[in-house]
Structure formats: structure tokens, C-alpha cells
Amino acid sequence: MAFLSRQDWLKRLLFEVAAGWYARKLATGPEADLRREFADFLSPAPGVAALDVGCGPGHLARLLAARGCRVAAVDRSWRLLRFACRLAAAEGLAVEFRRGSAERLPFADGSFDLTLATTVIYFVRDAGAVLREMVRVTRPGGVVATLDPAAAMNVASVRACCARRGFDRTDSRKLLIWARAAESFNQRFTEPELRGLLEGAGLAQLHLERRMDGLVWFTKAVKPSATP
Questions:
Q1: Residue 9: what pLDDT?
Q2: CATH code for the domain of 137
Q3: Do 23 and 83 meet the contact criterion of CB atoms below 8 Å apart?
Q4: Cα(73)–Cα(50) distance, rounded to whole angstroms?
Q5: Which pLDDT does position 104 carry in this prediction?
Q6: Which residue, 51, 199, 133, 215, is CA-closest to 207?
Q7: How many domains does the chain have?
């Protein structure tokens, strides 16, 4: 029998055992505000075919669907997908949810105009492999986007950010959980590291912005069109 690493146990705890708690944690507070800010950063036009990789309870997928996108979403957790389906149905939103791995997305090459992943790249074993898979399912000329912790994110910096912004205890606790996860996985990105990952996946026209007092990266980049 294979033994699970500390990181694997953390993933199992968050995404399976505590799926309901995780869905509620992300639904409100600064993480929800950041998600809306990310959607504004992407500014997809109505009708865009979008894929949310590692969608969790589907909060961002539903937000994009409400803005008129044609949305598919994938996650490996059955429990989180059940929450996602229920929430989308309750809001009358059409989102195609599928179970699958970020490393092997269950879609054909060039299926989407926009492929995105929020708090996923820092959480996987091989960030480059996931980005290459995201590029594969994006059409030439389409956009790949990510949201992940910057190198500056840690428990101390998040505490300071919460104090500056006047977050209450509940919202501060939510962000501190994220900071501890980022420290545990030790994948918080400097700008050169993130640029290297994106360019290594074959992306161009990189646009990187630091948000939330410099603790979070928003990125978007273009899959180049095939040369004749």
C-alpha cells in the first residue's frame, strides 16, 4: 500500500473530507473578492468558451457563466464537484462539470478560448506539466490565465495585510489558511520563476500583475497561432 505524503494528506483533507467547509470558506470574504477581481482582469467577452481547471466548488466557473461565457470546469474531487453542480443548478447556470486531473484534461486540443486555473499551479507536483496541458486545450490565439501566491506570501505578510485592510477575524483566518498552505507546498512564485513557467509552456504576450498588497499573482498569456 502506498503511503501518502504530508502534502497528499493536506489535499485529501481539504478537497474530500472537508469539501463542504472548503466550499463555504471560498464563497465569501477576501477570497471571493479576489475571484471577482480576477474575472475583471480576464474580461472575457460573452460567448467565450472557457475552462476552469481545478474548479473546486465552482465559484469562479459560475461567475464566468453569469457573465455570459460558455463554461466547462474540471476537478478531481467528486465531493467538490457535487457541491459545484448543486450551486450551479440553484443559480440556474449552465456549467459543464467533469471529473478529471489537471495533468490529463478530458478535452480535445484547442477546445477553449480561455483556460484558467486559480490556486492550482502552486498546489501541483509538476506546474509545468499542468500549464502545458492547459495550453494544449486552448485554441491558437486563446488565453491561458492563472492566480497563485507570490513569493512574498507567508503567514507574517498575510497577517500584516489583514491588519492594513481591517479584515475581521473570520476573513483573516481564511487568508492565513491559504498562507500556511503556500508555505507547506513551498511554491510561491517570483516574477522570473512564473515567467519561466509560462514561457516554458509555450505561451507569449505575458501579462503579470501582483494583487492583494503584492501577495498574489494574476497572469494571462496567449497561445501563439501556428506559423505557416
A1: 45
A2: 3.40.50.150
A3: yes
A4: 8
A5: 95
A6: 199
A7: 1
Cα four-point dihedral sign 171, 193, 127, 134 = positive
- What CA–CA distance (Å, rounded) separates 219 from 210? 9
Residue from 30, 83, 32, 81 nearest 60 by CA: 32
Distance of CA 114 to the CA centre of its chain: 13
Gap between the Cα atoms of 181 and 175, Å rounded: 10
Q: DSSP state, 165?
A: H
163 is a domain residue: no
Q: Which three cell numbers stand for residue 72?
A: 466547462
Domain that holds residue 29: 6-151+187-222
C-alpha cell belonging to residue 17: 473530507
Q: What is the pLDDT of residues 150-161, one digit of tens each?
A: 999 999 999 999
pLDDT of residue 123: 85
Q: Kindly report each contact of residues 31-40 with a partner whose C-beta sits within 8 Å and lies 24 or more positions away, as own/partner.
A: 31/174, 31/175, 31/178, 32/59, 34/147, 34/211, 34/212, 34/216, 35/59, 35/60, 35/63, 35/118, 36/63, 37/211, 37/218, 38/118, 38/145, 38/147, 38/218, 39/63, 39/64, 39/67
pLDDT-flagged residues of the chain (< 70): 1-19, 21-22, 186, 227-228
Q: How many helices (H) and strands (E) does the chain have?
A: 9, 7
- Residue 111 confidence (pLDDT): 98
Question: For residue 177, which of 17, 6, 5, 21 has the smallest C-alpha distance?
Answer: 21
The cell 478530458 sits on which residue? 106
Backbone angles phi, psi at 121, to 5 degrees: -60, -40
